[in-house]
Specification:
The chain is of the alpha/beta class. It has a single domain, classed as Alpha-Beta Barrel (TIM Barrel), CATH 3.20.20.70. It is about 50% helix and about 15% strand. Helix 3 links the parallel strand 3 and strand 4. The chain starts with a strand and ends in a 5-residue tail after the last helix.
């Protein structure tokens, strides 16, 4: 259903933390012009944890309206409260999003049965296509392949963002689920290898900063052109690494500020990128050709 380079979009903010809708407009155009294949709004990189429900829905609605059907918009609607996840998913559907991305419930540490029932409840309550999101490094819960396989039988659960960085994990899910579920990488450093192994795209932090090259990398990998994909990946690898020197989205928001695309706003408890990391990130940006 979706494929290629799918940017995990930042939410631009003014220095006081207010959402900057003008900068959000510019980012939507930036990605359309540079070949991004889909926009993920209000995910981890979008600071969804610090926006209230009204702000969350407003940002989704704003991006859908600005995209105007030119690029798919997938809304992050996950929560550690099943009821809140249902509400956010319903809001995204009414706003016109093409699909929703739902992270595993964080902090609660549910069992595998709890994960299955949570995602089934959201899927049964809201008919929009839904993509699961497994990122145990942030949520303290790991959704195992056998649970994913059970969820693949639910018609409107259409994919999974597998962000463990474990290629074997992604391959096992593909083997278990076959055509019932599409696998997407959620780890920039290993995305090329997972796409070459059969994944259909990458939900990417790096694409915020280097959208054209990430789109070309994903396209090459989807075609099976390993040489081209590896060449692009080698150029982008320093970005893949330095964009996680501090917790995402701290580095990527600073990079976009350096590029003049957003202001330097970020919400507590996150803070601006620490001074010692700015030089290495700037060097990686220069190597990737996104700044001179």
């Amino acid at each position: 259903m979706f494929h290629g380079s799918m940017v995990a979009l930042v939410t631009p903010m003014r220095p006081d933390g207010a959402v900057d809708n003008e900068a959000l407009d510019a980012l939507v155009e930036f990605h359309i012009e540079n070949g991004t294949n889909a926009i993920i709004v209000m995910g981890t990189t979008g600071e969804s944890a610090t926006l209230d429900e009204k702000e969350h829905c407003d940002v989704v609605r704003w991006v859908v309206e600005r995209a105007a059907g030119r690029i798919p918009v997938i809304a992050g609607t996950g929560s550690n409260s099943t009821r809140e996840a249902i509400d956010l998913t319903r809001c995204a559907m009414h706003a016109g999003a093409d699909a929703c991305l739902l992270v595993t419930p964080y902090y609660n540490k549910p069992t595998q049965e709890g994960l299955y029932r949570h995602f089934r409840a959201v899927a049964e309550a809201v008919s929009i296509p839904q993509i699961l999101y497994n990122v145990p490094g942030r949520t303290a819960v790991d959704m195992l392949p056998e649970t994913v396989e059970r969820l693949a039988d639910i018609a409107n659960i259409v994919g999974i963002k597998e962000a463990t960085g474990d290629l074997g994990r992604g391959q096992e899910i593909m083997q278990r689920c076959g055509s019932r579920l599409t696998v997407y990488s959620g780890d920039d450093a290993t995305a090329m290898a997972l796409i070459l192994a059969g994944a259909r795209g990458n939900i990417s932090v790096t694409a915020n900063v280097a959208p054209r090259d990430m789109s070309a990398l994903c396209a090459a990998a989807l075609k099976g052109d390993r040489a081209e994909a590896e060449q692009l990946n080698q150029r982008l690898m320093p970005l893949h690494q330095t964009l996680f020197l501090e917790a995402n989205p701290i580095p990527v928001k600073w990079a976009l500020f350096e590029m003049g695309l957003i202001a330097d706003g970020i919400r507590l408890p996150l803070t601006l990128l620490s001074e010692p990391y700015r030089g290495p990130l700037r060097e990686a940006m220069q190597q990737a050709g996104v700044i001179s």
